[in-house]
Amino acid sequence: MNYKPVQIRSIGMAVPETVITNDDLTKILDTSDEWISTRTGIKQRFIANGDENSTLFGIQAAKDAINKSNLQGADIDAIIVASSNPYNIYPSTGCAIQEAIGAKKAIAFDITAACTGMLYALEIGRSFIAAGKYKNILLVASDTNSKFLDWNDRASCVLFGDGAGAIIISESEDGKDDILALNINADGTMGRHITMNLVGDNCPLVKPSELGQQKITMNGKEVYKFVVQTMPESIMHCLKDANLEPKDIDYLVPHQANLRIIEGLQNRLEFDDEKVIVNIDKYGNTSAASVPIALAEALESGKIKTPSKAILCAFGAGMAWGSAVVNLRENLK
Ligand code: ACO
Question: What is the pLDDT of residue 217?
Answer without folding.
Answer: 93
